[in-house]
TrEMBL record:
This is Membrane protein. It is found in: Cell membrane. The chain crosses the membrane at residues 21-39, 45-64, 108-126, 138-156, 168-187, 232-252, 272-291, 297-318, 330-352. Signal peptide: none annotated.
């Protein structure tokens, strides 16, 4: 005969749930303040997104003031940094459409694929072999440079289930070198160091700059046409997040299975990141124009807020002492990748434009 749970049993559970909700609310309020800060012209004018501001502000709080936060709120912070970010990454798909990708055609898609694949391979190799970084830190740094900056770092962090400080190091690389691109790229083009036409400039900017906002900021100094092409090429790189995550998930699973086999634990199932499939599904929804434009715009605004919450929570869980251990090596890996994006990315752009021209 079953018995009903006692009041003493229910009380801790109710307290835990209340603590988690308080933690989520705290992160939401913190993220709202972050978005206000990010909207300040001095910051937004540099192409620095709320996601970047969020992880920096969260890290400052987490290392200087977190001792004042009730311990019961930690579950809410962890929820925001893990489960909420998966949902937010999936809804990022509403920013991409198949029609936009078709506008830049085969050249734009080719540049995106070559840049993403080569940057991931070079970044992982350089990080692990040259800089002696662990696999997760090398992959996160490579993903941030190869695909879509902080959003890619978040997606990979979720798939790899890595520590927050590793994501913080990767985001630091995105901030530094992505911001540098905003000033360096237009300068090189206007000074005549880059012999690129409007299409070439759009392909190069969109194919090699880290964040979407940074692409727009840099290309807007060239022309509206170059900005349009660069933005579409950049969103094509974002689209590649799905197949890359599936391949990485399969690779990570094989590694885990190999370890399990050596310990006589047998094989597991292939880990498919569901949020990547959700991302792809919402790209299709956006391409079919099922939702009104106003609804899509509202969802994208809410999604930016959710991503900012996730980034802020990751910052709160980051410890500076952990970053110091690999900080210079992670930054050096980012510098190697940046040199490749500028030199190798330019070579890829010129080669593709000539081949299809």
């Amino acid at each position: 005969m079953s018995t009903l749970p006692s009041a003493q049993t229910l009380a801790p559970a109710a307290s835990s749930t209340r603590g988690q909700l308080n933690g989520i609310l705290f992160v939401a309020l913190f993220a709202a303040a972050v978005m206000r800060i990010a909207s300040v012209p001095a910051i937004s004018g540099l192409g620095i997104s709320p996601l970047i501001v969020g992880i920096v502000a969260g890290a400052i709080y987490g290392n200087a003031l977190r001792h004042g936060m009730p311990e019961s709120w930690a579950a809410g912070v962890n929820f925001s940094a893990r489960k909420l970010l998966r949902i937010a990454v999936a809804f990022f798909g509403l920013r991409v459409s198949l029609q936009e990708i078709a506008q830049v055609g085969v050249p734009g898609f080719t540049v995106s694929v070559l840049v993403v694949v080569s940057t991931l391979v070079i970044g992982t190799w350089a990080g692990m072999k040259l800089m002696k970084l662990d696999r997760d830190t090398a992959l996160l740094t490579a993903a941030g440079s190869a695909i879509c900056g902080a959003a890619a770092v978040l997606a990979f962090e979720s798939t790899l289930q890595s520590k927050p400080h590793k994501s913080a190091m990767a985001v630091g690389s995105v901030v530094l070198f992505g911001t540098l691109s905003m000033f360096l790229y237009p300068l090189m083009l206007n000074a005549g160091w880059l012999h690129l036409d409007t299409l070439g400039a759009g392909l190069f900017f969109g194919g090699t700059i880290h964040e979407v906002a940074q692409v727009v900021g840099a290309a807007s100094n060239v022309s509206p046409e170059a900005t349009h092409i660069a933005t579409i090429v950049k969103m094509t790189r974002v689209m590649l997040l799905v197949p890359v995550l599936l391949v990485i998930g399969f690779w990570i699973n094989r590694s885990r299975n190999a370890s399990a086999e050596s310990a006589a634990q047998g094989k597991g199932k292939i880990a498919v990141p569901w949020f990547a499939l959700g991302f792809l599904a919402l790209v299709v929804v956006n391409s079919l124009h099922v939702l009104p434009d106003a609804a899509t715009s509202t969802i994208n605004t809410l999604d930016t807020f959710a991503l900012t919450m996730a980034m802020t929570a990751l910052g709160m869980e980051t410890r500076i002492a952990q970053i110091r251990q690999a900080g210079p090596r992670a930054l050096a890996t980012g510098a190697i990748l940046y040199a490749w994006l500028v030199g190798g990315g330019l070579a890829i752009t010129i080669g593709v434009e000539r081949f299809f021209g």
